[in-house]
Amino acid sequence: MNKLLLVLTGVLALGSTIYLLQNQSSNLRQQDEFTIQWKMFKSRYNKRYADPITESYRQQVFASNYLRVLSDVTGTFGVTQFFDLTQEEFAAIYLTLRVPRNINATESYQSTPKGQYDVNWVTRGKVSGVKDQGQCGSCWAFSTTGSVESALIIAGYATQKIDLSEQQLVDCSTTNYGCGGGWMDNAFEYIETSPLTTNLNYPYVAVDQACNQTEILGTLYSLSNYTDVQSGNTVQLKQFLQQQPLSIAVDASNWSYYTGGVFSSCQQNLNHGVLLVGYNSTEGSWLVKNSWGTNWGENGYIRLKDGNTCGLANAASYPTVVPPINSY
After folding, report:
1. Mean pLDDT of 19-37
2. Sequence-distant (≥ 6) Cβ neighbours of residue 222 within 8 angstroms
3. Is 139 a catalytic residue?
4. Which residue, of 70, 100, 124, is where some domain finishes?
5. CB of 118 within 8 A of CB of 293?
6. What's the domain count of the chain?
7. Residue 49 sits in which domain range?
8. Is residue 290 a contact partner of residue 296, using CB atoms and an 8 Å limit?
9. What is the pLDDT of residues 281-293, one digit of tens each?
10. Of residues 139, 179, 266, 310, which has the active-site annotation?
11. Which of 83, 132, 141, 210 has the CB geometry, 3.0–4.6 Å to 65, for a possible disulfide?
12. Of the residues 65, 186, 272, 310, which is catalytic?
């Protein structure tokens, strides 16, 4: 009996040792993987830190975000330029949309015949290039200029190279809050009375400045009005999308993890302004242009699952443009 107990004790001890060694080996492999991914992340996005302590902290944040990627089952998560930011930091910088109190998040979906509302304004050549808002909460300004630029191109008043000044909106649209956030409809109202110049005349610097009227010159672009789409109505949204791209509000809380595919990992807490540029009924997806540069997502774009995904139909609007004027 004693011998049997000794054998059993030995087997249990050996099993525990093997388990600990396997766990240790697994942890070491995971640490090696984090280290490799961290080095690739810093190289790809040209990340530099003030001192070793700061870098060590950012590496820990990166590791935490990377664990989210490892647990993803959707196939849409990957390493992005935001992986050295906590979710709180990311939200404070990029998710700054100032949503009016009367906008209520709703859930509405109606199926439509395949092919009926298919459109891609990018492949039609009616969407301007992807831009980068930098570390300024000016998504609302980029959503606004994006929809105005497309409207001008479709109307024949501009080419695909049109590049309107987001900085003018950041500095001069007083009903908004510059890098502290804003709302697209407020920006449309500003443009109705104060036409926009281009980035060439009023360059984007991603910080708040005093409004510089001397830079608002050259060819100026204005609106006659703008139209709000019925909140939550995805069919009406598809119908208006046949005419032109629309400024929309979305819940982008998890977009810091997006690298590709049809995305649906979101709620309807509207916090980011973007541009709706397409719909594909065969794939069951919307095509959205973002303002985080071409290194993010699918060359600056994201595909969202059909329906009211991320609340994209809850606050959509589009501008009606007029012929540009020359200020000289």
Report:
1. 66
2. 191, 192, 195, 196, 321, 322, 324, 325
3. yes
4. 70
5. no
6. 2
7. 2-70
8. yes
9. 999 999 999 999 9
10. 139
11. 83
12. 272
